[in-house]
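Homework help board

Subject: predicted structure for assignment chain

Our instructor gave us this sequence and asked us to write out the predicted structure in token form, then describe one feature. I got the tokens but I'm not sure how to describe them. Can anyone check?
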Amino acid sequence: MASSKFQAMWNHPAGPKTIHFWAPTFKWGISIANIADFSNPPDMVSYPQQIVVSTTGIIWSRYSTVITPKNWNLFSVSIAMAGTGLYQLGRKVKHDYFSEEEATIDKTL
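My token output:
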């Protein structure tokens, strides 16, 4: 049973014998690096970088579902990229546009 599932995955058109497997697998490094950056201060986050990460994540997640064969590895890494990029953008926007108002209000009181 297990060997037949392994054999099916091994021989899949987007399996480990193809670039369609390895490119998204290495792309996980970008998402992992973005998750590691969650602990960095928001002022170090780059708008252009996170916009690109989010946008490519959204575009490639859609593309991975319309190609034949469907590449679920590409889909999952693209969703992770979009999610981490949008989270980082949210942190940056909150820091740049909403934290200064609170600091100004505190100074006036």
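Reply (TA_rk): Your tokens look well-formed. For the description, you could write something like this. Residues 45-109 form one domain. That's the kind of observation they're looking for.
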